[in-house]
Each structure stands twice: as structure tokens, then as C-alpha cells.
Design brief:
Length: about 220
């Protein structure tokens, strides 16, 4: 009887060792989750925090692709130090790390030089060129938030790597389509005077002018 008990104990130990070994090979992040828990730690397949802020999701070939800003710690993290991170998922709950899709440039003269502000990346598929196109809010280095540009990058594969093409201000000098003609009229002198008394915060308007006049100058 004692030999049989020892035999089963050995088998149990072997089974436990095998289970632990499998878990170690898979990694904690490989265990699939069944739900999203707001406020809880959200990890990728490697057990690392998902780092894709201000993100956008593209659904392509039955897979969800999440593109977002890769943030670093400290004040310097308010600027782009790495680039755009990409993750993929089959269920919007469990995410695989696909790496950095767009990397900031080490060329100080590049619009996406390390230290620029690169925010809210969004990716679309262009059927005509059969390429993936990434759009993002871009403020070139040392411009603060007064540059107000749109950055464009392209890639042959959805996960990248993306190649920066150019940046531009596509809507400069144009009103949004839903603005009524009555709202496009220049402000009257009393309105300008009233606005000038407001303590408006924010950066100066890209075309010049003080903070307190930037709203009226923009409307004009």
C-alpha cells in the first residue's frame, strides 16, 4: 500500500512540474483573458504594460491593429522619444506586441526628430496604392503647439515599419464644412474689445499675435 502511495505522489510531482514548465514557456501574458477590467493592469502577450496612448484601431484581415504613442517616464515623456507602438488582437481583449511601427528620427532636421510632439496616430489602408497610411498630429521640435501639422507615413505591411513621407497643414485658411456663413463674418469692434479682455490661455497663434487676440484673429 505504501509503495502505491509513493508511486502516485511521484506522478503528481511530475505532473505539477510539467504544468509549471508549460506556464514558464508560455509566459504569464500568454494566458488568455476573457474580459477587460477598467482600472486594472492591461498587459500584452509578454506580460508588459500596453504602451499605445492616444491610439486608433484598424480592423484588417479579421485582426484588430492598435496604434498609439509610446510614452516614456518623466517630463520628457510629453514629447516623442520612441515613436508609434503597434499591437494586434483577435478579440480586443488580448493584445500581441508588434513592435514600434514608426520610429522617431535621430536627424535633428527631420520633422519627426526625437523630441517632437507626435500624437493620436491613425492608420488606413489605401486600396489604390496597396499601402497602409498613417496620419498623426505633429508639432515639430521646439515649436510647442503652434505648428499644428498633420504627419503622414506609409508602409507595405500593416505592422510597419512605416516611412515618414511629409507633414503639412491641410486645413490652413479653410473653415470646417459645417460652419454657417453667418459665423464666418469678421467680429465687430465691440466683440473684439470684449474678447481682448478675456484671459485666454494656450500657445500663440501660428500666424502671430498675442494670446488674448488669437481667437479674434483666427475668426477673421
Amino acid at each position: 500500500m505504501g509503495e502505491r502511495v509513493r508511486y502516485y505522489c511521484v506522478l503528481l510531482r511530475l505532473a505539477l512540474c510539467m504544468a509549471v514548465g508549460v506556464l514558464c514557456l508560455l509566459g504569464a501574458g500568454e494566458i488568455l483573458s476573457q474580459e477587460i477590467r477598467p482600472g486594472a493592469k492591461w498587459l500584452d502577450n509578454n506580460g508588459v504594460f500596453i504602451n499605445a496612448h492616444g491610439g486608433g484601431i484598424l480592423y484588417y484581415n479579421h485582426v484588430y491593429w492598435w496604434f498609439g504613442e509610446h510614452k516614456t517616464e518623466g517630463k520628457v515623456g510629453n514629447t516623442a522619444q520612441v515613436g508609434v507602438h503597434c499591437y494586434s488582437s483577435d478579440d480586443l481583449v488580448n493584445w500581441r506586441d508588434e513592435g514600434i511601427a514608426l520610429t522617431v528620427s535621430e536627424d535633428a532636421d527631420s520633422p519627426i526628430a526625437r523630441g517632437c510632439i507626435l500624437e493620436r496616430p491613425k492608420v488606413l489602408y489605401n486600396e489604390k496604392t496597396q499601402q497602409f497610411v498613417m496620419y498623426f498630429h505633429l508639432e515639430r521640435k521646439s515649436y510647442g503647439y503652434k505648428d499644428a501639422r498633420t504627419g503622414i507615413a506609409v508602409a507595405n505591411e500593416v505592422s510597419g515599419p512605416y516611412r515618414f513621407v511629409k507633414c503639412l497643414r491641410p486645413c490652413a485658411g479653410h473653415w470646417p464644412l459645417n460652419v454657417a456663413d453667418s459665423d464666418k463674418q469678421p467680429l465687430s469692434e465691440p466683440e473684439v474689445e470684449q474678447i481682448s479682455k478675456l484671459n485666454l490661455t494656450g500657445a500663440e497663434h501660428p500666424e502671430g499675435g498675442s494670446k488674448k487676440h488669437q481667437k479674434s484673429e483666427f475668426i477673421k
